[in-house]
Amino acid sequence: xxxxxxxxxxxxxxxxxxxxxxxxxxxxxxxxxxxxxxxxxxxxxxxxxxxxxxxxxxxxxxxxxxxxxxxxxxxxxxxxxxxxxxxxxxxxxxxxxxxxxxxxxxxxxxxxxxxxxxxxxxxxxxxxxxxxxxxxxxxxxxxxxxxxxxxxxxxxxxxxxxxxxxxxxxxxxxxxxxxxxxxxxxxxxxxxxxxxxxxxxxxxxxxxxxxxxxxxxxxxxxxxxxxxxxxxxxxxxxxxxxxxxxxxxxxxxxxxxxxxxxxxxxxxxxxx
Length: 272
Ligand SMILES: C[S@@+](CC[C@H](N)C(=O)[O-])C[C@H]1O[C@@H](n2cnc3c(N)ncnc32)[C@H](O)[C@@H]1O
Hints:
Strand content: 15-25%
Number of strands: 10
CATH topology of the largest domain: Rossmann fold
Number of domains: 2
Order of helices and strands: HHHEHEHEEHEHHEEHHEEE
Bound molecules: S-adenosylmethionine
CATH class of the largest domain: Alpha Beta
Oligomer: single chain
Shape: globular
CATH superfamily of the largest domain: Vaccinia Virus protein VP39
Distance between the termini: 28 Å
Helix content: 25-40%
Structural class: alpha/beta
């Protein structure tokens, strides 16, 4: 077999089908929006992203799958404007709430999906197109082409490395299968076949995190599961408690067994 014979789009689709959990639809993200937003307020992830990405004041940024504004909000303070796109209305409401509180006025939200017709959704090309932890698509090649088409300068993607934010040991404790699905290496290979050679940086988060309460630490693990029984809850709590250290009032230190790692891929727009 030759390298060029490998269809990374199909490998991506097959790896997605092997995932241990089903693909989240719009309604699933709506339900998760408030908790996701809370967990990502003032996130270490966003700070680390901006260690690598140096925004320019003339940029108009298109953030696809923006969620509650994890990147859209800090981007807004650094660039001309942000178009924040997500198919979950609850996520967009979380973003708007935060933007309002911080008196940010240069973010426009658009409820749309990866596969919608963006011209009909009045989404014009932007200098920068970003997808952070939101490449939840069946047609990866189509999504990458679309990002390239909608950018006039540069594209940024944050993609999972290996397990991404999931803790495989916790899945084992709950006696669940763990298959996290495709990670960034599929995206890199597909880009290569499209004639794009992205820059790759890695964002590795601190293994130890500080929480203000035990409940907050539990929530940082509980989100990985949709359907916990009372017995599962007990197991999860004892797993977390084993790694949790009470430091002082409002200060709990939690050490994960393995760190969370993300890949940051970027490339200059490929002009056809
Ligand atoms: C893990 S969150 C990431 C949010 C944010 N970009 C971040 O890095 O924190 C994934 C987001 O992608 C959105 N999303 C998932 N599939 C989508 C689709 N097909 N079209 C548009 N948004 C989608 C979800 O609603 C969710 O807000």
